Amino acid sequence: MPRAKKSTRSGKITVAINDGRLRLRVPSELLPEQKTQFVALGLDDTPANQLIAEAKILQIRGDMLNGDFDETLDKYRLKPKAKALRIADIGKLWIEYLNKQPTVKESHYDHLAVGLGKLIEANPYQEIDDALAFREWLLENTTIGMTKRILVHCNAAAEWGIKNRLVTGVTSPYLGMAGDLPQHAWELEGKPNALTLDEIRKVRAAFAEHEDINIENYAMFVDFLFLTGCRPSEAIGLRVCDIAPDRSHITFNGAIVRVQGRAVRTTGSKNNKSRKFPINRDLEKLLDEAIWDTFKPEDLIFTSLSGKTILYTYFAGKIWKPVVMPIIGRDSTPYSCRDSFITHQLAGNMSPSNVCAWCDTSIPVIQKRYLDPSLALEVQPLNLGEIKS
Fold first, then answer.
1. Segment (H or E) for 346
2. Are 53 and 62 in contact (CB under 8 A)?
3. Between residues 239 and 192, which one has the greater pLDDT?
């Protein structure tokens, strides 16, 4: 950029108006070609913009005194503001939205980007304003459950886009769409599936005494689920180093899940928290039996018979279901252990706040998803004489 030597030229720079737009008039004596020039500012003639023009004049005067005056005048032209990126397609917005979510775990990101993303990308109605047609296509090409999940996430993406001025409008076109669809039976009923104490005893015995060594291998894993109420993925990912050396507590700070067929360790719980679970006598006895002296700190405590990471889908379908269903006479999954732990702890008058802390949940979620009111019949209310004043 050409620079002039310190100048003492006295020509006066003024603000001029041309068709209602502001520009600076730079007199000829200040310029090498001795010809008056104008610097268009691209601003309307308003009091606020007049102040901007005056500030530009002060900048030029300061540069002249310091020997930094740009005789081409390019330095003093206002640079046009970069236009904000506007996104009209839900597919493009979805990708932008996902890339700006730093706390999303790898497993959940894979579900969003691949599982939901494929259907979002395949939907021919990409215009964000075509939300109704977008929903109808989903209903015709996938399940109601998947449609609802996609609409919930698309609404979150649209609201994020509006907030960050990437999407025009003030309200997400997807707002409320998922709620308009029929609810599943489990959403209407919300019934947990806890096992009775007698059923728990029978299930634990069935695993521990099973003639198939492959099934018996999971006996301690099942016991651990019943004794802690943790999520199966947390038990699958439990390491020796997660157990306090003095056997005072367990630290749940991660899990192992499957992402595109491979085992991936996540950090923190489902709710991105780390929690400590106190070890009682039954749990201490179990851990002493499960952890061998040859184990290293990073070794998994529970594995398949071949020593590999437990595959939840295999365990739930090929191990749990054939053993448990004949005993309890109804459908069930390993998550019933979590329902059972929470239900029986509360039925035994354990503080709800303690159960929430142990299981990484909340009282409203417990009431909706875990607590089985039918098992309250196993506990009798206190007699009036037993209530202390």
1. helix 336-347
2. no
3. 239
Alpha-carbon distance of 73 to 2, in angstroms, equals 10
Let me know the angle formed at the C-alpha of 249 by 243 and 252, rounded to the nearest 5 degrees. Answer: 65
Find, among 216, 255, 259, 261, the residue nearest to 236 by Cα: 255
Rounded to an integer, what distance in angstroms lies between the CA atom of residue 99 and that of residue 184?
Answer: 31
Higher pLDDT: 143 or 246? It is: 246
The answer to whether 355 touches 345, Cβ cutoff 8 Å, is: yes
To 10 degrees, what angle do helices 131-141 and 144-163 make? Answer: 150
* Three-class DSSP category at 78: coil
User: Cβ contacts of residue 183 below 8 Å, gap of 6+?
Assistant: none
Predicted TM-score (pTM) above 0.70: no
* CB burial string 246-257: b at 16+ within 10 A, e below: eeeebebbbbbb
pLDDT digits (tens, 9 = 90+) for 29-74: 888 877 888 888 888 889 888 888 898 888 888 888 888 888 888 8
Describe the crossing of helices 197-208 and 321-328 by its angle, rounded to 10 degrees.
140
Q: How many other C-beta atoms lie within 10 A of the C-beta of residue 85?
A: 10
Query: How far is 349 from 343, CA to CA, in rounded Å?
Result: 10
**Around Cβ 281, how many Cβ atoms within 10 Å?**
7
**304 pLDDT above the threshold of 90:** yes
Question: Stretch 139-144: mean pLDDT, rounded?
Answer: 84
**Distance (Å) of CA 342 to CA 198, 229, 274:** 16, 7, 19
Residue 383 has pLDDT above 70, yes or no: no
Which DSSP symbol is given to 304?
-
Calpha distance 52→143 (Å, rounded): 58
Which DSSP helix (H) or strand (E) runs through 221?
A: helix 219-228
Give buried/exposed letters for 313-350 (b at 16+ CB in 10 A, else e).
eebbeebbeebbeebbeeebbbbbbbbbbbbbbbbeee
